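From the methods appendix. Each design record in this collection lists the tokenized structure first, followed by the designed amino acid sequence. Records were kept in a plain field format so they could be parsed without special tools. The example shown here is representative of the layout used throughout.

RECORD:
FOLD TOKENS (75 positions):
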């Protein structure tokens, strides 16, 4: 199956981080967002593209989405 370009929010712990690992293991391109970027170093090493994200800030959400679209043209 073709690689997907996936974004996961809340990726610094719990279900979010586990979801990132699952999607990476399937060979997808995964963007991981959360406020605590220091908690995402492990998934960054595993191949995730880590971006600081606060979903309560429109500018932060817009910048996150624009970065993915600029790099891949799809989500
Ligand atoms: N329905 C159910 O049966 C059920 C069961 C379990 C859990 N849940 C819910 O599922 C969710 C995830 O659970 P979890 O155990 O994985 O929780 P968790 O380990 O506390 O993870 C929460 C994630 O959300 C991120 N986050 C919080 N505020 C954010 C913000 N403003 N911007 C960006 N990211 C933010 C945190 O990252 P940062 O703090 O680094 O930003 C963290 O990565 C929770 O809402 C929980 O209540 C539902």
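DESIGN:
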């Amino acid at each position: 199956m073709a690689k997907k370009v996936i974004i996961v929010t809340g990726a610094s712990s719990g279900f979010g981080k586990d979801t990132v690992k699952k999607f990476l293991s399937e060979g997808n391109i995964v963007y991981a967002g959360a406020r605590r970027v220091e908690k995402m170093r492990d998934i960054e090493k595993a191949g995730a593209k880590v971006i600081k994200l606060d979903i309560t800030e429109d500018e932060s959400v817009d910048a996150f989405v624009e970065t993915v679209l600029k790099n891949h043209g799809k989500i």
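APPENDIX NOTE: The first strand starts at residue 5 and ends at 9.
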